[in-house]
Amino acid sequence: MRILHQSQGFTTFEQAVSKAEKSNRSVLYSKTMKIDAIDPLQFYEAGYSIFHGTRTFWQDPKSEAVFAGAGAARTFNIENKNRFDALSNQWNAFLKDAVIDNEASDGGPVILGGFSFDPEKDKSHEWTSFKQGYFQLPAFMLTVNQYGHAFLTMNIVFNKGENAVSVWNRMQEQKEALLNKAVTTIQDVNVVSIKEYEPEGWKSSITSVVKRIDNKELEKVVLARKVKVQFDDKKRSDSVLEKLRDDQSESFIFSFEAGDSCFIGATPERLIKKNHNKVLSTCLAGSIARGNTMKEDQQLGHELLNDQKNLGEHEIVVRMISKSLEDLCHQLTVPKQPVLMKMRDIQHLYTPVEGKTDRASILEFVKELHPTPALGGTPTHKAMEMIRDEEEMDRGFYAAPVGWLNAVGDGEFAVAIRSGLLSGEKAYLYAGCGVVKDSDAESEYQETLIKLRPMVRAVGGTIS
Ligand SMILES: C=C(O[C@@H]1C=C(C(=O)O)C=C[C@H]1O)C(=O)O
Ligand SMILES: [Mg+2]
Questions:
Q1: Residue 5: which pLDDT band, with cuts at 50, 70 and 90?
Q2: Tens-place pLDDT, residues 106-118
Q3: DSSP class per residue in 293-349
Q4: Relative to the alpha carbon of 375, which ligand is closest?
Q5: Residue 103 · residue 82 · CB < 8 Å
């Protein structure tokens, strides 16, 4: 056997090969090694030439776990409407025969991606590649932990009958190419137009929903809309990510490529984080603009903290999340009052919720929590029906859970707001707001304009 760049890992790789030969099944081989620090975005960009269409990116607000993935060792494309269980089953079955060689506590096999907001909504063409769930196990994944230490995970699915040496050699060649690629400047493209879809019609929907809330049909519903951006050439996700990372470092920054499409965004809203027996969720609802001066900003913050409409909007979310977590956790801590969370364009009411659990998988939490009234409404079923009827668009993965999951069921999911779908020379950007009994259509419309701003800016445009 001639082995190119014989390096650490070949012995455990041989174990995976012989397991595949004996069992007659495909076997995952996952090898993690410590490497010299490298910028995750540089790694993502380096993946463009070989792995364009299969790259992934994730960064949490404190940069405790930053992942950049290039290539797909395996794609989990979920069509089943029971999407959380379907992914959980497929992931666990896939891991059963895996050979995992990882001395570090970081890295290892991790899947990254997201789910649809509403499995019952008719799917529109722009979301074709994503279905009910879309997750990638990267062929190459860079992990940077909170101490700035970097790890490279290589994942290979070995099939019986394959030539082990050539599979190994190809991986080594690709690894060298990724780690040693010189940085190139991305040719940027221009925004030609930004189209809003019938804003007046959207405002009338808000007014009619407020009437139904007054009639006690339901308490809260979140209505969203989209805008379409036209570019003069294909828009690359790399350049959008770079802008989001510069402007929105207090948010979760994510990117999931699926062929020519890419779901990308910077969301401030955590759905759930699970690390062994510790879980953390976030209630985020109620919004106001940032001020132009420090004084004005503080006044606006003070106004938000005391505004009955926004406090009501927020309280509904706290109530539901606490109730959902009660069944899955012991020792639940829920602060009595929200505090402010400030981003570049907007401030929100924020209540963190913490607990302890003995549940095995973060997906159990995702299933229980989604959709929270921060993106759906109360009562949930009624609100989902109303969203399906009133919204003229398919939300796709917007407002749905996105994140990552490792081999022991730990991970983190955020709610994919402040996000958009890049699709060749077009992008669709999404924003919504919580409609309650005191909502005013024009103010809610203005609130969506503020929420659209970060993504519009990240793709190189402006919106009033
Ligand atoms: C629906 C969105 O955001 C949600 C709605 C909010 C509100 O109406 O106050 C605030 C934060 C999010 O829960 C969005 O950004 O698209
Ligand atoms: Mg609101």
A1: very low
A2: 778 999 999 999 9
A3: SHHHHHHHHHHHHT-HHHHHHHHHHHHHHHHHHHTT-EEEE--SS-EEEE-SSEEEE
A4: 1
A5: no
* pLDDT at residue 410, as a whole number: 97
**At residue 132, does pLDDT exceed 70?**
yes
DSSP letter at 236 equals P
C-alpha dist (Å) from residue 144 to 107, 250, 428: 9, 17, 30
**Cα–Cα separations (whole angstroms), residue 383 to 103, 118, 220, 222, 397:** 47, 12, 7, 8, 18
The confidence score (pLDDT) of residue 4 equals: 44
Could you report the per-residue pLDDT of 319-328, keeping only the tens digit for each? 999 999 999 9
Q: Residue range 241-270: average pLDDT? A: 97
According to the model, what pLDDT value does residue 188 have? 78
Average pLDDT of every residue of the chain: 94
> Which run of H or of E encompasses 241?
helix 237-247
314 lines ligand 1 (CB under 6 A): no
What is the CB neighbour count within 10 angstroms for residue 39?
16
Q: Pick from 209, 222, 446 the residue to mutate for probing ligand 1's pocket: most ligand atoms within 8 Å of its CB.
A: 222
CA 116/CA 378 separation, integer angstroms? 19
Closest ligand to the CA of 222: 1
**Closest ligand 1 atom, CA of 374?**
13
Every domain range in the chain assigned CATH 3.60.120.10: 194-251+268-458
What is the 312 CA–ligand 1 centroid distance (Å)?
14
Please, are residues 58 and 254 in contact by the beta-carbon 8 Å criterion? yes
Q: What is the CA radius of gyration of the chain?
A: 22
- Which of 276, 130, 217 has the alpha carbon at shortest distance from 435? 217
The domain defined by 194-251+268-458 carries CATH number 3.20.20.150: no
Model confidence at 7, pLDDT cuts 50, 70, 90, reads: low
